[in-house]
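Case study: GDP-fucose transporter 1 isoform X1.
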Amino acid sequence: MNRSLLKRSRILRMALLDSTQSEKDESFILRATKIAAVVALYWFISISMVFLNNYLLENKDLDAPIFITFFQCIVSVGLCWILNFLSKLCPGFVDFPSLKFDFRVSREILPLTIVFIGMITFNNLCLKYVGVAFYTVGRSLSTVFNVALSYAVLKQTTSFYAVLCCGVILGGFWLGVDQESVAGSLSWTGVVFGVVASLCVSLNAIYTKKVMPVVDGNIWKLSYYNNLNAIVLFIPLIAFSGELKSVLEFNRLTHLHFWGMMIVGGVFGFAIGYVTGLQIKFTSPLTHNVSGTAKSCAQTVLAVVHLGSSKSNLWWTSNMMVLVGSFAYTWVKGLEMKKVQVPPETETTSSLKSKDDSMV
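Here is what the predicted structure looks like once written out:
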């Protein structure tokens, strides 16, 4: 009898242990699957957005990059209203802040909006003139500007190893420009736009940090006011640039395919903010930056394959220098943050800069 009870208890214990182990394995597999799905979604949205914007901007019949950017801002505001409505209709399923227009908030965010307009406009202009293949190198100086502005504006010093990483990025940038020139495909206009876009990305991170308290630290409210302000400011820019005439004379203005692509581009531009935050949530800011660097590498390879072009070894070296320098900078800053307790606002700015880099 006792032997029988002992045997049963052993079997029960083994069954419970196997069940616990199975639950642990299942939870690990489930978490790994979720992370893989989120990273894949981030890559898909980000790469698709760049190629889609390139498709819209390369349209020879419509030379209106400011109008395209303006329309994407309209889509972003429209999506904010839709999500706000759905959050009231289905509060348990959709979580979105209440949107009530406040002129005071809009006015205080205006300096950030001016930088934001510069960031997205010059980014699209850079993409228009240099293409997707050289885009990573053409817009690679945001990290360098971030270090320079942190010292000039915030009086924050940077470690020797971080500066060394910036030197590698700068070297890759100049080598890339040289190789594009040798190949006869260099657009100095595109390079200048890329440099200005990189500067605006860094300025955007600094101004975002300053105005976040105005919107109670809510990134969606900030996105709403930023895009709403941008729509108003874009109207005179479109008028003075002469793009309105180009848009009205566009022969496919009434085609559903054109507007469909424009809307999808706007949706992807809005979605990149969400998937960036999702990737940071499921991994970490450091892992997000590593993922972004790997994504840029994949994006460049896809662009070269898609165009069917042949690039020199030095051209590829320039891309690898930019990517390795960016990865190394992320790794160095990650190690420095572990050694020193970083203030919450610094971590927030770092995450926001990652988001800015993804969005443009």
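For the exam, be able to explain this: Confidence is low (pLDDT under 50) at residues 344-349.
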